[in-house]
Design goal:
The protein is mostly beta strands. It is built from one helix and five strands. It has a single domain, classed as OB fold (Dihydrolipoamide Acetyltransferase, E2P) (Beta Barrel). Strand 4 and strand 5 form a beta hairpin.
Length: 69
């Protein structure tokens, strides 16, 4: 799949917090930095990610997209 963003990092999922509509995914990226992404619970369930999973983080403007391959 092609993405319209050039800023891509690999990361490890460190924590997932689920609310009533949205979820927050905390990520550890290289250089010992942390990031987070929020998404709907439907998207979170579709990704099927869990803490410890390796994912690719795609950053475009203010959006942080988490994808699995």
């Amino acid at each position: 799949m092609k993405y319209g963003a050039r800023n891509q990092l690999t990361a490890e999922v460190t924590d997932i917090k689920r609310g009533t509509l949205m979820g927050q995914v905390k990520l550890k990226v290289p250089a010992d930095a942390e990031m987070a992404s929020v998404m709907t619970l439907d998207s979170l369930d579709d990704l099927g990610i869990k803490p410890g999973d390796k994912v690719r983080v795609i950053v475009k403007a203010i959006n942080v997209l988490v994808v699995t391959e």
